[in-house]
Design goal:
It is built from five helices and no strands. It is mostly helical.
Length: 127
C-alpha cells in the first residue's frame, strides 16, 4: 500500500490564481535580490570610468541583457503592485473571493502595462 501524504502539497491541488500569484510574489522577490548583482556591477562600472562602463553597456544591450532587464523590470512592478494589494488586505479590504480574483488580475495587468511603458520610455518610443 502506497503511503498517503500527511499534508496537502502542490501535487494534490491544481494551481489556482491565488496560489500562483503567491508563489510568483516570492519568486519575484528572490529574482529582484539576484538583480542586485548586476546593479552593483553597473554602479561600479560607472564609477570606474568609460572603458568599464562600455563593457557593462555592451553586455546590457545584448539580447540576453535586454531579456534579463525586461524580466527584472516586470518582477519589480509585479512585486510593487502585489505589495500594494497586500497592504490593502492588511487594512481589511478586498477579502471577498471576487475581490481577490479581480485584484489578482489587476496586479498582472498593471505589472505588464507598467513594464511595457517603462521599456517604451527607455528605448525612446514614448516621450
Amino acid at each position: 500500500m502506497h503511503p498517503r501524504p500527511l499534508s496537502p502539497h502542490l501535487q494534490i491541488y491544481r494551481p489556482q490564481l491565488t496560489s500562483v500569484l503567491s508563489i510568483l510574489h516570492r519568486a519575484s522577490g528572490v529574482f529582484l535580490a539576484l538583480g542586485l548583482l548586476p546593479l552593483a556591477w553597473w554602479l561600479t562600472a560607472a564609477a570606474d570610468g568609460g572603458e568599464a562602463f562600455a563593457r557593462f553597456h555592451q553586455c546590457a544591450q545584448s539580447l540576453a541583457g535586454r531579456a534579463l532587464l525586461l524580466a527584472w523590470t516586470f518582477c519589480f512592478f509585479y512585486h510593487l503592485c502585489n505589495g500594494v494589494r497586500h497592504l490593502c488586505w492588511d487594512m481589511g479590504a478586498g477579502f471577498s473571493l471576487r475581490a481577490v480574483y479581480i485584484g489578482g488580475w489587476l496586479v498582472v495587468a498593471a505589472s505588464a502595462t507598467l513594464t511595457a511603458a517603462a521599456f517604451l520610455a527607455a528605448y525612446g518610443v514614448l516621450p
